[in-house]
Design goal:
Length: about 270
């Protein structure tokens, strides 16, 4: 990009940013088309396009394919709020079940995927296992009950989505016949089988926001410039041996997570 183009690009970015700050374009307003930006700010089409990309990367605007770009709406409260906790119940036969209270508000978009993988360095550090450890993965794409999600054959792409993965190290299945026969379980089934096998389960959860992967952006419909929120719930036994890990990934921009707090004693 030459000097003239660079100067045009910078001028367009500064002018649009100033107009947004002054309220010329209010939150939710659609910005002018590329052609209109060219005419209004006296820049080339390339500079107009790059200026919009820069503002999207800064999180000031949201670009919608086929429609254009609009000023990002400010949220006084998060659109989606989730209570992150497990509820323990017992059946008449004494069988213990664990229910994820947040997942009660989510439904599958399509059929779960089941596949084998090996622990990347990132997963290994979270799980507390060596890198390249064999893993069984139970993968689901979910949508929130408060939003609309059509069938896999006719999806409209609207609504809040969440990727949910359960990572199960192969070693966890060694002494549990039911898991050795079928290691691809949803969390409720897995925790019940581990408890029946005599394991006392403990959990710790980590939360972080980071730049989405290309898969996150496409699958979760995250607009450019917005982060993905990742939770990782690690399951261990009394001896702190890692048994499994649940991971969720979702748009961080409109999500609030709540956690019950229980005071500890010294």
């Amino acid at each position: 990009m030459g000097k003239t183009s660079t100067s045009q690009y910078t001028a367009a970015v500064d002018a649009l940013r100033t107009d947004i700050a002054r309220g010329v374009y209010a939150p939710g307003d659609w910005l002018p088309s590329e052609a209109a930006i060219m005419a209004r700010y006296h820049v080339s089409r390339y500079s107009a396009r790059e200026a919009l990309k820069r503002l999207a990367a800064e999180g000031l605007i949201v670009t919608v394919d086929g429609k254009g770009s609009h000023v990002k709406t400010r949220h006084d409260r998060a659109t989606y709020s989730g209570l992150r906790s497990l509820r323990r119940t017992s059946s008449d036969t004494g069988t213990v079940h664990y229910v994820d209270t947040e997942l009660e508000n989510w439904s599958p978009v399509d059929q779960p995927r089941r596949y084998r993988a090996t622990a990347t360095l990132d997963l290994a550090l979270s799980l507390g296992v060596p890198e390249h450890t064999p893993l069984f993965v139970y993968h689901r794409l979910l949508h929130h009950h408060s939003t609309t999600e059509t069938t896999p054959d006719n999806r409209d792409g609207n609504g809040q989505r969440m990727i949910h993965r359960l990572y199960l190290p192969a070693a966890t299945c060694t002494d549990i016949p039911a898991l050795a026969d079928d290691p691809f379980r949803d969390p409720g089934e897995l925790y019940a089988l581990l408890t029946q096998a005599g394991q006392t389960l403990h959990w710790v959860e980590h939360v972080r926001a980071t730049t989405p992967t290309p898969e996150d952006t496409t699958t979760l419909h995250i607009p450019p410039g917005l982060p993905v929120l990742i939770t990782r719930r690690i399951t261990t036994n009394t001896h702190t041996r890692p048994l499994a890990m649940e991971e969720t990934r979702r748009n961080a921009d409109n999500t609030q997570l709540s956690y019950p707090q229980t005071p500890t004693t010294d």
